[in-house]
User: Which sequence fits this backbone?
């Protein structure tokens, strides 16, 4: 038997076989049943969603010898020829290659002729928006007052390019992209009829790649089946590479590592992908979409179920992991990934910006602190002992009442032995303090970087933010975040510091800079004077 492409072999032959366009099928079936078929239809929508297929089915329903009928017989001369595309009375025209006024003039002359053997002469014009304005104008009169034996069905992916005068004379139907589940159902039926065994995850990968186009999905499946039959294996990573996507299992794996902040494993994962020759740009696109699904799970599980294009296994995974990461952290990593892709255009490489993005997320943007750490601030125990990595902050702060009281008494004794802090000392270690915060709360650390420091007479710390960073202030002053900052300050500086937040009315003036900034500038001036053997002229002339 001669080979036939899946897109032709499994093209819907009647209204009941059309998937994902129920609103259109229902309206057309009712029109045929009640014999209220309009003389002109405009089918618009993305490619590969069934526009020309529905046009052919409508033509068969009208011209079937048993019709007009909702179920064409597929056996009469008219049905067979329409299916093959050889009917004399159903003329399919490509608007892109027959776009001139001469072609439309010929069409106008042929419209006057009666059908050869069918009930109607039906013109199906695909990509009708490609017609020139002159061609549209030539068609206008015929479209306005067509002979009773003529029907027009226009199909287009760009309805806004069709002249309004044409649109006003047509009944318009908007075709939608198909849900992933609908496409997978269609692919399963094809696989069963072809007697090929294929894992459902592969079908979901194909459907996800097709992005709502059933025709694209059928083409990909048609292309993939010979490979599977020849290799006698179903290696999901190879198939994903063949399709130009990242398989869901890999996306789930990297998502798990991101939540765990396991930077070593993340870098190893990127190295593996690079060695396999995978496209890191595609990886970023797929990962951002995957993280977006996590956001949808957190914000609205109902919307996620409706919009998501992932397999049931991955849906279950996302619902489990959504509890383990905050919305702020998801937004942060997505911003870093998008930023990395932009930077890659300047560097002509994507691997380095991608690795840096993950490092920034896992550790925060550490800044070097060249100043020595004062002995008065050194802890008798290591920082890792103060901030255990394997415990959550809630676990650290919570405990038995007896233990809490005991710890507070000991800390109070230690605090009393330390000298009072001043603003200069806090500022000199502020960046290092933020880097310690970032190990536990990346988002809070990024917000604290924008703060301007000041101390009250009572020794309380005030964090001021310019008005453009009012969002930072709102997040930080939440009770949970404020307590976290105060506890971390106490562990770092060995002082009980109360923290408050405010919005700055005006930007800080140059003369209000901190002492450490002034000293740094003075040091640079002294070095310049020594180098060039100069002096500072203090005259006001």
Assistant:
């Amino acid at each position: 038997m001669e080979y036939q492409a899946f897109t032709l072999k499994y093209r819907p032959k009647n209204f009941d076989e059309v998937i994902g366009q129920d609103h259109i099928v229902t309206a057309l079936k009712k029109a045929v049943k009640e014999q209220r078929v309009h003389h002109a239809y405009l089918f618009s929508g993305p490619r590969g969603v069934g526009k020309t297929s529905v046009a052919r089915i409508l033509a068969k329903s009208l011209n079937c010898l048993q019709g007009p009928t909702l179920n064409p017989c597929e056996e009469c001369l008219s049905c067979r020829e329409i299916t093959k595309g050889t009917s004399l009375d159903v003329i399919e025209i490509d608007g892109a290659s027959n776009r001139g006024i001469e072609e439309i003039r010929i069409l106008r002359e042929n419209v006057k002729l009666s059908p050869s053997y069918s009930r109607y002469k039906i013109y199906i014009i695909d990509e009708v928006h490609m017609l020139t304005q002159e061609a549209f104008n030539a068609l206008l009169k015929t479209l306005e007052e067509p002979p009773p034996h003529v029907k027009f069905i226009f199909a287009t992916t760009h309805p806004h390019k069709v002249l309004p005068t044409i649109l006003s004379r047509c009944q318009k139907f908007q075709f939608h992209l198909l849900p992933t589940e609908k496409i997978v159902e269609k692919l399963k039926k094809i696989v069963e009829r072809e007697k090929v065994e294929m894992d459902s995850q592969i079908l979901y990968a194909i459907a996800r790649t097709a992005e709502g186009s059933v025709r694209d999905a059928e083409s990909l499946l048609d292309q993939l089946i010979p490979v599977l039959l020849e290799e006698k294996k179903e290696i999901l990573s190879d198939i994903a590479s063949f399709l130009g996507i990242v398989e869901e299992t890999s996306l789930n794996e990297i998502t798990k590592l991101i939540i765990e902040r396991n930077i070593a494993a993340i870098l190893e994962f990127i190295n593996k992908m690079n060695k396999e020759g995978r496209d890191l740009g595609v990886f970023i696109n797929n990962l951002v979409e995957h993280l977006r699904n996590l956001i949808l799970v957190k914000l609205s599980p109902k919307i996620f179920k409706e919009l998501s294009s992932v397999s049931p296994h991955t849906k279950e995974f996302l619902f489990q992991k959504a509890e383990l990461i905050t919305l702020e952290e998801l937004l942060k990593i997505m911003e870093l990934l998008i930023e990395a892709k932009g930077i890659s255009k300047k560097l002509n490489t994507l691997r380095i910006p991608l690795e840096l993005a993950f490092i920034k997320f896992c550790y925060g943007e550490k800044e070097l602190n060249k100043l020595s750490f004062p002995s008065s601030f050194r802890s008798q125990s290591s920082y890792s002992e103060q901030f255990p990595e394997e415990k959550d902050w809630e676990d650290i702060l919570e405990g038995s009442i007896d233990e809490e009281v005991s710890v507070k008494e000991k800390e109070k004794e230690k605090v009393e032995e330390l000298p009072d802090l001043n603003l200069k000392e806090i500022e000199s270690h502020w960046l290092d303090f933020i880097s310690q915060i970032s190990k536990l709360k990346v988002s809070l650390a990024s917000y604290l970087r924008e703060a301007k420091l000041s101390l009250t007479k009572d020794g309380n710390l005030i964090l001021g933010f310019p008005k453009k960073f009012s969002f930072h202030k709102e997040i930080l002053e939440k009770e949970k975040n404020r307590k976290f900052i105060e506890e971390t300050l106490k562990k770092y500086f060995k002082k009980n510091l109360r923290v408050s937040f405010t919005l700055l009315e005006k930007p800080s003036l140059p003369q209000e800079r901190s002492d450490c900034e002034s000293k740094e500038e003075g040091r640079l001036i002294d070095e310049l004077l020594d180098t060039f053997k100069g002096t500072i002229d203090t005259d006001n002339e």
In short: Residues 366-418, 508-514 have pLDDT under 50 and may be disordered.
